Amino acid sequence: MHSFGIIGLLEPSNPIALDHWTSLTRLALEQKFGLSLPADDLPSLKSALTAVLPASRLPPLLEALTWLHLIPSASTSTSSSSHTQDSRRPAPPPSQPLPPADALALHLAHALRYVPDERDLVLLHHEIVARDCHTGLEQVHTSTLTAYGDARASAMARTVGLPVAFAAQRVLDGAVRATGVCGPTADEAVWKGVLEGLESRGLGVRETIRSGPSLEGVLAAGLRQQTTATGL
Predict the structure, then answer these.
(1) CA-CA-CA-CA torsion for 175, 177, 182, 186, nearest 10 degrees?
(2) What phi and psi values does residue 199 have, to the nearest 5 degrees?
(3) Residue span of the structural domain in which 37 resides
(4) pLDDT tens across 188-229, in order?
(5) Which of 59, 84, 111 is the last residue of a domain?
(6) pLDDT reading at 29 higher than 80
(7) Most buried of the four, 42, 91, 152, 168, by CB within 10 Å?
(8) Are the C-beta atoms of residues 115 and 79 closer than 8 Å to each other?
(9) Cβ distance 9 to 25 under 8 Å?
(10) Is pLDDT larger for residue 85 or for residue 80?
(11) What's the structural domain count of the chain?
């Protein structure tokens, strides 16, 4: 997404007119940098991208643009026989000019939608590090929730909707004494009822305690190593 912003795909103003989705990247580049590129010319487009992006960012950007049908080479694909690939075919471009950001959002809403053989994933992970101030030893306390969508509902719908439903049910049952605007821990009847309800629906949280490096420590060590390697 950062690369998308650099090349102009996230610009919120100055509408552009699309004849095909494969022209969006070219037109966004032309508008942001004042360029003039030939239509449907992938080498010219790659050359322009190379001029505005670090070399290390170009391969993943081209891979994303190809998958999203936002560069000319995407339209040459002939492997459209599978159900998933047919479902990924781009929608018709907008009939009215749109700013690049709006056009991209419209395209992503179609391209990234779930197809029948796909499901979503919700992963919630908390990590608390307890460090002994005398010995320096660490204990890592983790709390993890993993939920997959199924044929009845998406994981997002279940993890968002069910807590609200359980809390509302506790209010309707008269178990909640707190009134007005309160935090989630203001009344045990609310949060306890929600957690118990989620457990009963297979959305319980798995908790562990272990010794060793924390995720924070691993990331910090990796950042230090990268900083040392680059001389920053």
Answers:
(1) -80
(2) -60, -40
(3) 2-111
(4) 988 999 999 999 999 999 999 988 777 777 777 777 776 776
(5) 111
(6) yes
(7) 42
(8) no
(9) yes
(10) 85
(11) 2
199 and 154 in one domain?
A: yes
Would 31 be classed as within a structural domain? yes
67 within a domain of the structure (yes/no): yes
Q: Which residue type, as a one-letter code, is found at position 73?
A: S
Residues 91-144 pLDDT 10s: 899 999 999 999 999 999 999 888 888 899 999 999 998 888 888 788 899 999
Q: Look at residue 116 and tell me if it is in a domain.
A: no
Strand, helix or coil at 125? strand
Average pLDDT over residues 54-70: 93
The answer to whether the beta carbons of residues 192 and 175 sit under 8 Å apart is no
| Same-domain check for residues 7 and 61 | yes
Whether residue 154 lies inside any domain: the answer is yes
Residue from 93, 89, 64, 94 nearest 78 by CA: 89
Neighbouring C-beta atoms of residue 194, cutoff 10 Å: 19
* Alpha-carbon distances, residue 48 vs 26, 42, 53, 54, 58 (angstroms): 9, 10, 9, 12, 11
